[in-house]
C-alpha cells in the first residue's frame, strides 16, 4: 500500500471566522470535503495554511479556480517549510472571491482540497454602544465563539455585556432551530431501489426534493416515493436504471443539502467515441461523443493543453452528448484532440488542408494543382478499450483506402476462430470482435496497413459487485479499512465467513475501522463482514479477499518419447493456478544415483518439453515439473519410474525434407517378437493435432520411405511401427516436429561472447544466440578453450542449452582464449570469434558505499572492502588531495578492509572520497559522492512541429550520492542569451514543449536535482520549430500560361532528400516562386526545370 498523504488545510481571515479542512488519502480511496469561508471586510489579510504529510513530504501548489496557478509576487505570498505550506493575500479585494485549491503531490500521486473565499465590502463603523445599528444575531451567526471579542472590536463594539446577551439569544435560537443529518451518496445495482434518508429535529413543512434542477413530486408514483416518519424523511427511487443517475438534493427551509446517486450496474464508457476530422483552412471543425451517463464533467485537450470557451472554441454538453467546435481553423490547429472523463479518455486527430497560393505575373498566370497519392493511413484509429469480463469486445478502425490489414496481439498475429472474428465493413472500415472476453484477452492490440499502424490496449475488469474486493499475495500483509460517519463513535465487530475475529488486530477510530493480517495465508481467503453499532443503530459492510498463492501440482506427468540423449515429457495444467495466471513451468532432471536435481529449464511455456544434453544410455533419469505464477513456484511432480535417454527402435528415425516431401530412414527393431518382420507402417501427426494417422506401408527389406502427401510449411511428427505375422508392434520414438520446407543447414556461429568474474580457478562466459538457426531449432552449445602456446581447442564440458557457462577448473596463472559453437539437428556451427586471452588469476575488487548523508558535528565512517592477491596498497583521496591522519581524520587498514573515520564532521567534508588499491597485477578504485548530480544523459529533441517538440533524456550517470528528486528544464531562443524556465518539478525523463513560435530557432537544457541542489545542465542541439518534410509516392503538376506554352511533360527523377520533377516546356519564363503552406513546399520554375524540395525561408 502506498504511503499516506495527509493534507490539513486551514483558512484564516483576520477579524473573521477561522475554518479548517482535513483530507486523508490512502490509495485507492480519496475523500474530498469542501468548506465555505467568508471574509467579512475588504482590505484584510487572508491566510491559507496547509499541513501535509507523506513519504516523501509532498510539494504543494495553489490554484484559483480550475486552471489558474498562483505564483509568488504582488499581493500573493507563497511559502512552504517542511510539512507546512502557506498562501497569504494582502489587502483582499472583492475580486479575490472565489474557489481556491491546494494540491499536494509526491511520487505516489496527488490529492487536493478546495476552500471557497468570499470577500465582502467593509461595513461602516457604528457608534460605540449602539447595538441597534447592527443585527447582532446575524453578526454572530457564522462566527467561532473564540472570535466573538475580536469580531466585536472590528465593528467598534465595546458593549461586551450586550454582546454576551446576544450570544445567549443565539444559543437559545440554535437549540430551538431544526438540525439536519446530511444525506449520503448511494450506489445501487440495476433494478434495485435507492433510498435517501434525512433526520429533521424540528418539524417544518418547507421540505422539497430535487433531481438536478427538477423538483420531485410529493405524491408517490411508479418511480419515486417521499415518506415522512416522525423526524425521519426518506426519498425512494424504484427500479433504478442508468437514466436515474444524477445529483439529488433536499431543501429544508431554503437551505439545500446535496448528494449523488451512482448506478453500480453500468460502467461509465464512451457509447460513441471521438472520430478524426479533416477540414479545410478557415472552416469549422466539429468533435462530438456520447457517454453512457448524463451530466458527467468533461475536460477537452488540444495536444495536452486544456481548452476553454473562447472566440474560436465552443464547448457544449446536453445530457450524455458532448460537443467541441473549433472555428476558423488554421494549420497551427493540426493536433490531437482528447476528451477526458474521470479515468477514461477518447482522442482523435484534427487535420487541416491548406490553401494553394497562386502568383500572377504580367499577363501570364501559372496555376499549380497537386494530387497526393500517399501510402494508406488510418483515418479512425483504434481506441483503448476497457471491458467487463464475459462481455463482447469490438475494436474498430477506418483506413484512407481499400487495402488488407493484419491484426496482432502482443506481437503475435491473430487469426479468426470461434471466439475471434475479423470483419471488413465496406472498403475502409475494419473491426476485430472478441466474444465472451476473459482476462487472457488483456494486452496490446495492433492493426497494420502498409507502413501505418494503430495500437490500443484492452483491459478486462471483473463484473461489478456491491462488495469491496481486495487481492493480496500469500505472505504479504493486508489491512482492510472501512470508513464510516457516525456520532457517537461506533463499535466494530469483524467476522470471517460469519465467524467472529479476534479484537487484537482491530483498530477502530472516530471515522474508520480496520482489520490487519500480518501475513496472508490461503485460509484468509473469503468474505469478511464488519458490523458497526452505536446507540442510533447499526450498519454492515462486506469485503471479499482473494489470496494469490503459488499454483498447485501439475497433472498426469509422463515420459512420451525417449531419444539418444533426449527425453520428451508431457503433462496437464494444475487444477489450481493459485489465483494468478500460469507464467511457465520449471523442468528438472536427476540421475537416480545422485540426490541433486539439475535445472533443465525454468521457461517452458507449454505442457510439453524435451530435455536434451543427457547421456546416451547406461544412465537412468527421473524428471520433475512444477508450475509457476507471479507469486512463485508450486509443488513439483516427479515421474513415476526412471528412464534411459535412448531410442526404443534401433537408431533414431531420420527425416530429410524439402518443400514437397519428407524422406524417413530407420533401422529394424532390436527384437522381432520371435517372428520375422513382414513390413513397416509409417504414421504421421499434424503438430496441431493429437491423432496419429497411417501414411503408408513398406515391405520388410525397405528401411526408408518418401511421403509426398504433406503440405508445405506445415509441421509434422513421424514414427514407424514394425509388423510380423502376429500383428503390428509398438511405435518407435517420434521425430521432432519437422517443417516441410527446403533442407536445413548448420546454424550461424554464436555472437558477442563476453566474460566476467575471472578467478584463478574459473571464469563465467555469456553469449548471444546465432542470427540464423539453419532452419532447425538450436539444441545446445559447445564451449571450447585454448591455452596460450598451443593450437588445441578443448571442450569445456558437455553441451548445454543455456547461453551462459561457468568454465572450471582452470590452471592458475595460465592464459586462455574461449569460443562457442551452436548445435542444431544438422550439426555444429562454425566457432564464434574467440575472446582475447584471459589470465586465470584472482581479480582485485574494491567495494565502497554508494553515498551517505550525515548531519554536521556527527562522526563519518567510510568502510571499504578490498580483495586481491598480492595484498594491494591502499590510498584515500578527496578532491585530488591524499588523506592523511590528523586530529579529526583517522585511517584504519587491515587485511581486506580499510576505513576512513572523520570525527566532528563539517560541511566542508562533503564531496567525493576515492579509495585506490594497487598491486603488482592491477589497480581499482571506488568513491562515495555527497554532491550535486551530474548532467542528464542522451538529451534528445524529437517530434518537432511548428509549435511544439518532445524532449527526452536519461538519468545522469552520477546522481551525486543522493536520489534524483526532479528535473529543471529551460529554453532560450538561439539569438538570445536569456534562459526561460519551462518547469522545475518534472519527475519523468520526458517533457512536451508547446507554444513555440513557428520557424524560430531554440536551444533547450535540462538539469537534475537532488537533496544537495541542481547539477550541471545537458544542452540540446539547436532546432527550428517547423514541420518535417512529408514523404509522397506520386505528385502531379498541371501548369497553364496565358500565352507561349505549346506543351509540357512531367518526369519524376529519384533523389535522396527531395522529390525532383523535370518540366519540359517550349517556353522560357522568368524565375517564379510559389509557396504551398500545407506541406511547406515551394516550386521554382526557371527555364525548363521544376524542382520540389523542402521550403526555404521566403
UniProtKB/TrEMBL annotation:
Organism (species): Pseudonaja textilis
UniProt entry tagged with the keyword 4Fe-4S: no
The protein, known as: Immunoglobulin superfamily member 22
Alphabetized InterPro entries for the sequence: FN3_dom (IPR003961), FN3_sf (IPR036116), Ig-like_dom (IPR007110), Ig-like_dom_sf (IPR036179), Ig-like_fold (IPR013783), Ig_I-set (IPR013098), Ig_sub (IPR003599), Ig_sub2 (IPR003598)
GO cellular component, one term: nucleus
SUPFAM superfamilies in the record: Fibronectin type III (SSF49265), Immunoglobulin (SSF48726)
Assigned keywords, A-Z: Cytoplasm, Disulfide bond, Immunoglobulin domain, Nucleus, Repeat
Pfam families hit by this protein: fn3, I-set, THB
Compartment(s): Cytoplasm; Nucleus
Amino acid at each position: 500500500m502506498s504511503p499516506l498523504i495527509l493534507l490539513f488545510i486551514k483558512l484564516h481571515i483576520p477579524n473573521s471566522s477561522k475554518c479548517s479542512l482535513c483530507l486523508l488519502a490512502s490509495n485507492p480511496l480519496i475523500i474530498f470535503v469542501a468548506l465555505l469561508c467568508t471574509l467579512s471586510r475588504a482590505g484584510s489579510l487572508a491566510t491559507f495554511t496547509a499541513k501535509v504529510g507523506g513519504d516523501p513530504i509532498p510539494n504543494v501548489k495553489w490554484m484559483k479556480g480550475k486552471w489558474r496557478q498562483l505564483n509568488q509576487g504582488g499581493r500573493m505570498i507563497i511559502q512552504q517549510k517542511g510539512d507546512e505550506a502557506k498562501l497569504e493575500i494582502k489587502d483582499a479585494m472583492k475580486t479575490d472571491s472565489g474557489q481556491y485549491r491546494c494540491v499536494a503531490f509526491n511520487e505516489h500521486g496527488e490529492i487536493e482540497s478546495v476552500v471557497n473565499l468570499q470577500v465582502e465590502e467593509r461595513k461602516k463603523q457604528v457608534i460605540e454602544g449602539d447595538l441597534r445599528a447592527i443585527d447582532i444575531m446575524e453578526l454572530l451567526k457564522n462566527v467561532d465563539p473564540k472570535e466573538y471579542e475580536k469580531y466585536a472590536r472590528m465593528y467598534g463594539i465595546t458593549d461586551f455585556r450586550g454582546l454576551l446577551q446576544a450570544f445567549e439569544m443565539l444559543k437559545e435560537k440554535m437549540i430551538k432551530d431544526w438540525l439536519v443529518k446530511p444525506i449520503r451518496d448511494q450506489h445501487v445495482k440495476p433494478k434495485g431501489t435507492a433510498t435517501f434518508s434525512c433526520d429533521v429535529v424540528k418539524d417544518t413543512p418547507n421540505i422539497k426534493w430535487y433531481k438536478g434542477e427538477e423538483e420531485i413530486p410529493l405524491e408517490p408514483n411508479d418511480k419515486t416515493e417521499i415518506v415522512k416518519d416522525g423526524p425521519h424523511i426518506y426519498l425512494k427511487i424504484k427500479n433504478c436504471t442508468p437514466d436515474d443517475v444524477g445529483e439529488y438534493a433536499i431543501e429544508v427551509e431554503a437551505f439545500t443539502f446535496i448528494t449523488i446517486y451512482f448506478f453500480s450496474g453500468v460502467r461509465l464508457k464512451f457509447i460513441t467515441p471521438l472520430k478524426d476530422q479533416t477540414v479545410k483552412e478557415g472552416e469549422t471543425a466539429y468533435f462530438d461523443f456520447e457517454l453512457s451517463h448524463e451530466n458527467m464533467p468533461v475536460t477537452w485537450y488540444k495536444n495536452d493543453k486544456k481548452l476553454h470557451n473562447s472566440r474560436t472554441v465552443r464547448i457544449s454538453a446536453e445530457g450524455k452528448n458532448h460537443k467541441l467546435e473549433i472555428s476558423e481553423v488554421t494549420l497551427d490547429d493540426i493536433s490531437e484532440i482528447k476528451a477526458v472523463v474521470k479515468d477514461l479518455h477518447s482522442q482523435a486527430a484534427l487535420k487541416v488542408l491548406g490553401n494553394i497560393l497562386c502568383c500572377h505575373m504580367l499577363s501570364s498566370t501559372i496555376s499549380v494543382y497537386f494530387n497526393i497519392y500517399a501510402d494508406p493511413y488510418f483515418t479512425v484509429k483504434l481506441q483503448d478499450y476497457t471491458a467487463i469480463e464475459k462481455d463482447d469486445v469490438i475494436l474498430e478502425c477506418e483506413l484512407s483506402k481499400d487495402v488488407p490489414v493484419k491484426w496482432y496481439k502482443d506481437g503475435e498475429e491473430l487469426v479468426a476462430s470461434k471466439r475471434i472474428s475479423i470483419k471488413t465493413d465496406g472498403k475502409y472500415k475494419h473491426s476485430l470482435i472478441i466474444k465472451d472476453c476473459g482476462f487472457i484477452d488483456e494486452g496490446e492490440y495492433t492493426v497494420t496497413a502498409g507502413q501505418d499502424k494503430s495500437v490500443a490496449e484492452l483491459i478486462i475488469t471483473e463484473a461489478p459487485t456491491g462488495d469491496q474486493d481486495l487481492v493480496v499475495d500469500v505472505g504479504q500483509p493486508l489491512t482492510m479499512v472501512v470508513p464510516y460517519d457516525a456520532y457517537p463513535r461506533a463499535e466494530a465487530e469483524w467476522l470471517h465467513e460469519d465467524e467472529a475475529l479476534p479484537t487484537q488486530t482491530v483498530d477502530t477510530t472516530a471515522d474508520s475501522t480496520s482489520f490487519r493480517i500480518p501475513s496472508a495465508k490461503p485460509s484468509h481467503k473469503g468474505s469478511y463482514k464488519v458490523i458497526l453499532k452505536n446507540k442510533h443503530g447499526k450498519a454492515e459492510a462486506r469485503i471479499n479477499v482473494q489470496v494469490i498463492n503459488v499454483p498447485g501440482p501439475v497433472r498426469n506427468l509422463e515420459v512420451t518419447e525417449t531419444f539418444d540423449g533426449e527425453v520428451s515429457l508431457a503433462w496437464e495444467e494444475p487444477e489450481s493456478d493459485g489465483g494468478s495466471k500460469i507464467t511457465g513451468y520449471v523442468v528438472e532432471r536427476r540421475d537416480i544415483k545422485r540426490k541433486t536435481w539439475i535445472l533443465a529449464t525454468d521457461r517452458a511455456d507449454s505442457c510439453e518439453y524435451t530435455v536434451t544434453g543427457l547421456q546416451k544410455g547406461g544412465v537412468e533419469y527421473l524428471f520433475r515439473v512444477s508450475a509457476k505464477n507471479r507469486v512463485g513456484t508450486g509443488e513439483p511432480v516427479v515421474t513415476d519410474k526412471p528412464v534411459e535417454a535412448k531410442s526404443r527402435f534401433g537408431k533414431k528415425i531420420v527425416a530429410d525434407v524439402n518443400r514437397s516431401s519428407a524422406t524417413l530412414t530407420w533401422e529394424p527393431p532390436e527384437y522381432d517378437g520371435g517372428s520375422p518382420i513382414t513390413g513397416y507402417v509409417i504414421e504421421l501427426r499434424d503438430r496441431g493435432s493429437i491423432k496419429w494417422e497411417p501414411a503408408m506401408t513398406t515391405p520388410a527389406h525397405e528401411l526408408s520411405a518418401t511421403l509426398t502427401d504433406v503440405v508445405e510449411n506445415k509441421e509434422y511428427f513421424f514414427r514407424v511401427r514394425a509388423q510380423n505375422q502376429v500383428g503390428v508392434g509398438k511405435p518407435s520414438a517420434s521425430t521432432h516436429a519437422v517443417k516441410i520446407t527446403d533442407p536445413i543447414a548448420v546454424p550461424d556461429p554464436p555472437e558477442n561472447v563476453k566474460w566476467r568474474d575471472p578467478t584463478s580457478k574459473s571464469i563465467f562466459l555469456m553469449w548471444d544466440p546465432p542470427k540464423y538457426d539453419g532452419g532447425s531449432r538450436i539444441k545446445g552449445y559447445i564451449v571450447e578453450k585454448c591455452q596460450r602456446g598451443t593450437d588445441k581447442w578443448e571442450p569445456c564440458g558437455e553441451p548445454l542449452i543455456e547461453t551462459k557457462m561457468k568454465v572450471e577448473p582452470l590452471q592458475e596463472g595460465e592464459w586462455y582464449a574461449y569460443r562457442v559453437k551452436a548445435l542444431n539437428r544438422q550439426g555444429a556451427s562454425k566457432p564464434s570469434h574467440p575472446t582475447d586471452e584471459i589470465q586465470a588469476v584472482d581479480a582485485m575488487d574494491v567495494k565502497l558505499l554508494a553515498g551517505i548523508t550525515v548531519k554536521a558535528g556527527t562522526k563519518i565512517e567510510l568502510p571499504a572492502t578490498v580483495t586481491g592477491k598480492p595484498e594491494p596498497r591502499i590510498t584515500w583521496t578527496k578532491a585530488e588531495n591524499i588523506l592523511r591522519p590528523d586530529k579529526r581524520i583517522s585511517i584504519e587498514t587491515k587485511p581486506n578492509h580499510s576505513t576512513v573515520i572523520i570525527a566532528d564532521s563539517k560541511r566542508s567534508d562533503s564531496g567525493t572520497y576515492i579509495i585506490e588499491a594497487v598491486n603488482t597485477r592491477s589497480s581499482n578504485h571506488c568513491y562515495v559522492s555527497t554532491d550535486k548530480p551530474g548532467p542528464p544523459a542522451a538529451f534528445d529533441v524529437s517530434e518537432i512541429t511548428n509549435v511544439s517538440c518532445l524532449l527526452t533524456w536519461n538519468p545522469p550517470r552520477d546522481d551525486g550520492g543522493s536520489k534524483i528528486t526532479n528535473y529543471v528544464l529551460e529554453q532560450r531562443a538561439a539569438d538570445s542569451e536569456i534562459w526561460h524556465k519551462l518547469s522545475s518539478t518534472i519527475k519523468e525523463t520526458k517533457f512536451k514543449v508547446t507554444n513555440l513560435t513557428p520557424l524560430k530557432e531554440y536551444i533547450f537544457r535540462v538539469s537534475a536535482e537532488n537533496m544537495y541542489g541542481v547539477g550541471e545542465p545537458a544542452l540540446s542541439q539547436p532546432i527550428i520549430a517547423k514541420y518535417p518534410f512529408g514523404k509522397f509516392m506520386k505528385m502531379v503538376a498541371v501548369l497553364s500560361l496565358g500565352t507561349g506554352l505549346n506543351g509540357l511533360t512531367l518526369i519524376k527523377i529519384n533523389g535522396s532528400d527531395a522529390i525532383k520533377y523535370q518540366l519540359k516546356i517550349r517556353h522560357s519564363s522568368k524565375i517564379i516562386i510559389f509557396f504551398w503552406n500545407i506541406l511547406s513546399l515551394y516550386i521554382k520554375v526557371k527555364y525548363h526545370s521544376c524542382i520540389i524540395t523542402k521550403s526555404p525561408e521566403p
